[in-house]
Amino acid sequence: MAQFDKKDLERRMNGAVESLKGDLSGLRTGRANTTLLDPVTVEVYGAHMPLTQIATVSAPEPRMLSVQVWDKSNVGPADKAIRSAGLGLNPIVDGQTLRLPIPDLTEERRKELAKLAGQYAEKARIAIRNVRRDGMDSLKTDEKKGVISEDERKRFETEVQKLTDDMIAQADAAATQKEKEILGQ
């Protein structure tokens, strides 16, 4: 069994689930939290960079975030990135500082955030399926090279599919829990 590595596939699928959990932690539930801006990427210096690499994010008040941009030329792109991130935040520019008041969660906003949680979950499911596809391709390649037999390939494919189903169930459970949290249920 040369190329097929179940542990590597499991590690990569776990990475997708953990990434989803990190993204979901950034969805707000009514309080200012610096992880709220973790998914925001800013196009600066010809590349997309996380907001935390061009600015300091803090929560000076329970309903306010403050973003201190280090380079004055990056204030505009940071403002644009926060507005277009789909978080429902409108920064107030104050020199090199962006102030983000956290509005109350209306029923409409709660539904939008629940929908965003669903989108994050779908991205995680796609990432998990891509890992599955890589594993299946590796198995087919090994079979063509004569490293494993057809029966072994089918057995391993069943294992990979079971692992995929388990990871997708974990991702769905995390997203469902966050949606309930957002909707106040």
From TrEMBL:
InterPro entries: Ribosome_recyc_fac (IPR002661), Ribosome_recyc_fac_dom (IPR023584), RRF_sf (IPR036191). GO terms for molecular function: ribosomal large subunit binding. Its main location: cytoplasm. GO terms for cellular component: cytosol. It comes from the Bacteria. SUPFAM superfamilies: Ribosome recycling factor, RRF. Residues 20-183 form the Ribosome recycling factor domain. GO terms for biological process: cytoplasmic translational termination. The keyword Cytoplasm applies. Keywords: Cytoplasm, Protein biosynthesis. It is found in: Cytoplasm. Responsible for the release of ribosomes from messenger RNA at the termination of protein biosynthesis. May increase the efficiency of translation by recycling ribosomes from one round of translation to another. NCBIfam families: frr (TIGR00496). Belongs to the RRF family. This is Ribosome-recycling factor. The gene is frr.
